[in-house]
Structure formats: structure tokens, C-alpha cells
Write a sequence for this structure.
């Protein structure tokens, strides 16, 4: 899925129990200007994994991990091309993502 976040944009994942093992999606940011958000269905705390971020010159590199998150955010000013891959095993969504600049791609528990 290509996400245009030039204005606020939200994607809601299906309930994890309705997915089969191997269900997957890749979300790639194409434009920024507001937040691009990926939520779990019903704020399920089912996102497990990490996102890696780096400044374009490589001077700042951050890895954020979570074992029970419910939201992924491409924060305003994240660079187009930043992405997350999400894969289900039928009970959890496993997340891997990369974004620039640092601190502009987040994996969090909001509730």
C-alpha cells in the first residue's frame, strides 16, 4: 500500500484473529505533511517487532522495539520511501520498518 500522508491518513488492520498465518502488507510512505497512522483493529495490542530510523547522514540511528503495540505512525516530515512490513501468524502482527529522519517512524501502545 502506498500511503500519501500529505493530509492525515489512517489505515486500520483487520482483527488479527481474522488473518491467516502469512497474511502480510507493506506500507510505503509516498508523501508527508501530516501523520500517516496504521492502527490495529479495536486497539488490539498485537504489534510485535521493531522500527529502525536514521538521519540521512547516518549521524543518528534509533531502533524502537515493542511487544504489545497498537499503532505505527509516520510522523510529519518522515521522508517518502519510509516503510513498514507487517506479517501475521494468526495471533500476532510482526513488524519491521525503516524510516528517515530519526524519530519520525514510531511503534507505540496508545491505549
Amino acid at each position: 500500500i502506498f500511503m500519501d500522508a500529505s493530509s492525515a491518513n489512517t489505515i486500520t488492520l483487520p482483527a488479527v484473529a481474522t488473518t491467516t498465518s502469512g497474511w502480510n502488507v507493506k506500507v510505503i510512505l509516498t508523501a508527508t505533511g501530516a501523520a500517516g497512522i496504521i492502527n490495529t483493529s479495536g486497539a488490539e495490542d498485537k504489534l510485535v517487532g521493531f522500527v529502525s530510523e536514521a538521519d540521512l547522514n547516518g549521524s543518528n540511528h534509533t531502533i524502537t522495539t515493542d511487544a504489545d503495540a497498537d499503532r505505527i505512525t509516520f510522523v510529519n516530515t518522515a521522508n517518502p520511501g519510509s516503510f513498514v512490513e507487517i506479517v501475521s501468524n494468526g495471533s500476532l502482527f510482526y513488524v519491521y520498518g525503516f524510516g528517515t529522519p530519526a524519530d519520525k517512524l514510531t511503534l507505540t501502545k496508545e491505549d
